[in-house]
Amino acid sequence: MMVASLGSPAAEPVADPVMGVYEGFWTTKDGNKGRISAQLRPLAGGKHDGFVAFYKAKTLEGVLKLKAGSGTFEGDSVKMTGGSLTLEVSGDATIQDGKLKGNFKGEMGEGAFEGAIAHPKSKTLGAKAPKRAKVLFDGKPAADAWTDFRWKVTPEGTMVVQGGDIHAKGEMHNFLLHVEFRTPLMPEAQGQARGNSGVYLHSKYEVQVLDSFGLFPLQNNDCSAIYSLKAPNGNACLPPGEWQTYDITFVEGSPAKNQLPRITVVHNGVTVIDKFELPKSVLVAGTTAADASGEFLKLQDHGNPVEYRNIWVEPFYATGRK
Length: 322
Known about the structure:
Structural class: mainly beta
CATH class of the largest domain: Mainly Beta
CATH topology of the largest domain: Jelly Rolls
Number of domains: 2
Largest sheet: 8 strands, antiparallel, barrel
Order of helices and strands: EEEEEEEEEEEEEEEEEEEE
Oligomer: single chain
Strand order of the largest sheet: 1-2-3-4-5-6-7-8
């Protein structure tokens, strides 16, 4: 698993002075060293929690889960099941002068780490629609693009989830879908109540939208997961209140030829699910909250004011794209 460094600073300031991605370095007393990538998220009562991931070169060495605290955090090793194995590590951390500082010990040795807040942004943010693409929303809903558009359009050119699901009109068998979304800051909420929405391919297969920032490892109901089927490989989330991107490739396949549909999810420029084959068991009914509208895209209203913008879809022939 990986926690990616996502690039240059974001244009918009983070709403919470502690919340964010922290990048830096770790060093042991005997001279071993590497880099860290950490995420801290806000909780109720002014507290925060999160995790620190330790890397040597590009290899994930260990993950320290930071317990809820107010500027000072105790940490335990994340227990991994399957995927990349990590070394046992324990420690503590503090926020000092805008920096995350801490100590650790365990199978990596004994040492210290330090990171500064980084405010990264997605590498595909603001991506322009290719010539062959169909634009669905570019500040306003495209004419004849939706069967039931009912969401609020803001003066800033975003649409806010409200009043039920919406469906993009028409058929599209194989496509690349670009979606930009922003989850609200909801520190009092937990789990599936925290910035929930969903991108449903063919209105049946959900790529989850959720505020999963600060969690590790992610589960198959977290952000960028194929809901209930496949967890993402790592956490590429950005904090709530910042714009994020999905670039999702859907290949329909041919069940008659034993070619099952495949989904690739690129979250904030990081491939977190690569050519996942949908099991035959979901081809008819789909995942949770699927419908049989027949439209190639549904965006879900799950009761939270998630925002969307810059949505376009590029069709292709399955034999012409890897």
